[in-house]
Design goal:
mainly alpha; two-stranded antiparallel sheet
Protein backbone atom coordinates (compact mmCIF):
# COMPACT_ATOMS: atom_id res chain seq x y z
CA UNK A 1 0.00 0.00 0.00
CA UNK A 2 1.44 3.37 -1.02
CA UNK A 3 0.78 6.61 0.80
CA UNK A 4 1.23 10.07 -0.64
CA UNK A 5 3.62 12.18 1.45
CA UNK A 6 2.54 15.84 1.67
CA UNK A 7 5.01 18.31 0.21
CA UNK A 8 5.39 22.05 0.75
CA UNK A 9 3.96 21.81 4.26
CA UNK A 10 5.45 25.17 5.25
CA UNK A 11 3.47 27.06 2.60
CA UNK A 12 -0.05 28.21 3.38
CA UNK A 13 -2.86 27.13 1.09
CA UNK A 14 -4.09 29.61 -1.52
CA UNK A 15 -7.81 29.95 -0.89
CA UNK A 16 -8.91 33.17 -2.61
CA UNK A 17 -7.13 33.26 -5.97
CA UNK A 18 -3.47 33.99 -5.32
CA UNK A 19 -4.06 34.98 -1.68
CA UNK A 20 -3.99 32.92 1.47
CA UNK A 21 -6.76 33.32 4.01
CA UNK A 22 -4.68 35.69 6.17
CA UNK A 23 -3.71 37.83 3.19
CA UNK A 24 -7.33 38.04 2.08
CA UNK A 25 -8.48 39.08 5.56
CA UNK A 26 -5.79 41.80 5.80
CA UNK A 27 -6.57 43.16 2.35
CA UNK A 28 -10.36 42.99 2.85
CA UNK A 29 -9.99 44.70 6.24
CA UNK A 30 -7.86 47.47 4.73
CA UNK A 31 -10.32 48.01 1.87
CA UNK A 32 -13.27 47.97 4.27
CA UNK A 33 -11.64 50.44 6.67
CA UNK A 34 -10.69 52.68 3.75
CA UNK A 35 -14.30 52.65 2.55
CA UNK A 36 -15.55 53.52 6.04
CA UNK A 37 -13.09 56.44 6.25
CA UNK A 38 -14.21 57.71 2.84
CA UNK A 39 -17.90 57.30 3.76
CA UNK A 40 -17.53 59.16 7.07
CA UNK A 41 -15.51 62.07 5.66
CA UNK A 42 -17.43 62.26 2.38
CA UNK A 43 -14.73 63.91 0.30
CA UNK A 44 -11.98 62.04 -1.53
CA UNK A 45 -9.27 64.75 -1.23
CA UNK A 46 -9.80 64.95 2.53
CA UNK A 47 -9.93 61.20 3.10
CA UNK A 48 -6.86 60.23 1.01
CA UNK A 49 -4.32 61.24 3.72
CA UNK A 50 -6.07 58.83 6.11
CA UNK A 51 -6.64 56.07 3.56
CA UNK A 52 -2.97 55.86 2.43
CA UNK A 53 -1.59 54.74 5.86
CA UNK A 54 -4.42 52.21 6.23
CA UNK A 55 -3.71 50.78 2.77
CA UNK A 56 0.04 50.70 3.44
CA UNK A 57 -0.44 48.89 6.76
CA UNK A 58 -2.80 46.33 5.24
CA UNK A 59 -0.34 45.75 2.39
CA UNK A 60 2.54 45.29 4.81
CA UNK A 61 0.53 42.91 6.96
CA UNK A 62 -0.49 40.89 3.91
CA UNK A 63 2.77 40.67 1.96
CA UNK A 64 5.84 41.77 3.95
CA UNK A 65 7.89 39.14 5.80
CA UNK A 66 11.02 40.67 7.36
CA UNK A 67 13.54 37.95 8.22
CA UNK A 68 11.02 35.29 7.16
CA UNK A 69 8.57 36.20 9.93
CA UNK A 70 5.13 37.77 9.41
CA UNK A 71 4.88 41.54 9.77
CA UNK A 72 2.19 41.10 12.42
CA UNK A 73 4.77 39.53 14.76
CA UNK A 74 7.06 42.50 14.19
CA UNK A 75 4.26 44.91 15.13
CA UNK A 76 3.41 42.82 18.18
CA UNK A 77 7.03 42.86 19.35
CA UNK A 78 7.24 46.62 18.74
CA UNK A 79 4.14 47.38 20.86
CA UNK A 80 5.32 45.00 23.58
CA UNK A 81 8.64 46.86 23.70
CA UNK A 82 6.87 50.23 23.92
CA UNK A 83 4.53 49.17 26.72
CA UNK A 84 6.87 47.02 28.82
CA UNK A 85 9.12 48.28 31.58
CA UNK A 86 12.73 48.78 30.72
CA UNK A 87 15.54 47.85 33.06
CA UNK A 88 18.76 49.75 32.58
CA UNK A 89 21.85 48.21 34.15
CA UNK A 90 25.24 49.79 34.20
CA UNK A 91 28.56 48.80 35.62
CA UNK A 92 29.89 51.14 38.25
CA UNK A 93 33.45 52.09 37.45
CA UNK A 94 36.06 52.47 40.15
CA UNK A 95 37.51 55.90 40.55
CA UNK A 96 41.11 56.13 39.41
CA UNK A 97 43.58 57.54 41.92
CA UNK A 98 44.94 60.82 40.77
CA UNK A 99 48.59 59.94 40.36
CA UNK A 100 50.93 61.29 37.81
CA UNK A 101 52.42 59.01 35.22
CA UNK A 102 55.87 59.51 36.74
CA UNK A 103 54.69 58.23 40.14
CA UNK A 104 53.18 55.11 38.56
CA UNK A 105 56.34 54.44 36.57
CA UNK A 106 58.51 54.97 39.65
CA UNK A 107 56.37 52.53 41.67
CA UNK A 108 56.56 49.82 39.02
CA UNK A 109 60.28 50.17 38.40
CA UNK A 110 61.04 49.97 42.12
CA UNK A 111 59.03 46.77 42.52
CA UNK A 112 60.81 44.76 39.81
CA UNK A 113 63.50 42.40 41.11
CA UNK A 114 66.92 42.61 39.51
CA UNK A 115 67.45 40.15 36.66
CA UNK A 116 70.59 38.03 36.98
CA UNK A 117 72.01 35.11 35.03
CA UNK A 118 71.11 32.74 37.86
CA UNK A 119 67.46 33.84 37.96
CA UNK A 120 67.09 33.28 34.23
CA UNK A 121 68.64 29.80 34.57
CA UNK A 122 66.27 28.97 37.44
CA UNK A 123 63.30 30.15 35.42
CA UNK A 124 64.37 28.06 32.44
CA UNK A 125 64.72 25.00 34.64
CA UNK A 126 61.25 25.54 36.08
CA UNK A 127 59.64 25.97 32.69
CA UNK A 128 61.63 23.12 31.12
CA UNK A 129 61.96 24.98 27.84
CA UNK A 130 63.20 23.09 24.80
CA UNK A 131 65.59 24.65 22.29
CA UNK A 132 65.31 24.49 18.52
CA UNK A 133 67.14 21.15 18.31
CA UNK A 134 64.85 19.64 20.97
CA UNK A 135 67.61 19.58 23.58
CA UNK A 136 66.36 20.54 27.01
CA UNK A 137 68.10 23.40 28.73
CA UNK A 138 68.12 21.41 31.92
CA UNK A 139 70.23 18.74 30.18
CA UNK A 140 72.83 21.30 29.14
CA UNK A 141 73.16 22.75 32.62
Amino acid sequence: MRFQVPQFIEEEDKIFGQFTFKQFVYIAGGVGLSFIIYYLIGSLPLSVPLIIPVAALSGLLAFKKPNGRPFSLLLESFFYYLTSEKLYIWKKENKIDKKTIEEVVDETTNELPPVTQGSIRDLALRLDIQTDNDEKISDRL
